[in-house]
Write the structure tokens for this entry.
Amino acid sequence: MAWFYFFIFIVSCFALVRSGLWMVQSLIRIAQFLKWREFIVASVLMAFSTSLPEVFVGITSALHQTPELSLGMIIGSNIIALTLVIGMGAIFGKELRFKGRTLKRSSIYAGIYGLLPLLLMLDGNISRPDGVILFLSLGFYFFQLLSREERFTKVFLNRFKGSWVQFKSFLKSLAMFWVGTGLLLLSAEGIVFSSLKLAVSLNLSLVVIGALLVSIGTSLPELTFGIRSITMGHEDMILGNVMGSVVINSAFVLGLVALISPFEIVNFSPYLRGIIVTVATCFLFVTFARTDSKITKKEALLLLLIYVTFFLAEFFAK
């Protein structure tokens, strides 16, 4: 029956990506209508929207009393964002440049927030007070980001013409957003259900299933948006989206899970490889960002190699 649950997982991931793209497209149009600035669109709006799959899967798994699946997904998603998404972006764009002090500072925040779930794990549980701490840290990040927003003066492109056309497009975008939200809920339910069954069929822990299969499925919107941003010449948007996604995954998603379903970590061994790779990835990402203020193709290839090694080590580990 493993093949049947894998089929459900694939279909759910496809629905998740499709609904995520609908929501991303609708939010772009909403941002255009409201004339929000490009960096804010990437760092806040796009980062949150492309992280919606993680949010819905996290909530669903917490309601199913399987928060370990969420923690594995968060660790895996952060690794994917800082290796696969950044690596592919640097390769497609030949390099990724961190322009200005705010982008460099945000890279440090991304590294710190990527490590935050690991620090909270050290006492052997993820509790409701931890959830409060995570939400407070999220508020701190957004305050720091928005307080420096005036440095990013590039307004997101507004392609609409005529007030009535604008308003109709705005309403259509809102409708698409809510349709996408409903589809996200259903696909998240399918992913959690099939993941639980696959964990039993393949004799893998929920942590490994979350770090491998679920994190790949939920990270597809970030990867799609990142490649599209590079091809359209919006380098700042992929960086803002990745760094914002890491913060939202670590603080918002895990914070929700902790508040809904706090849990103890009895055995650290399923998390060990993810912890090691997360520490290495965060360190390398911040180092690359601070060195010459760019990520080169060689550095990108190293990041991709780290992810491939992590995936194979997790999949074949017994």
In short: Strands lie at 96-97, 125-126, 263-264, 294-295. Residues 57 and 313 are 24 Å apart (CA to CA). The mean pLDDT is 80. The longest strand covers residues 96-97.
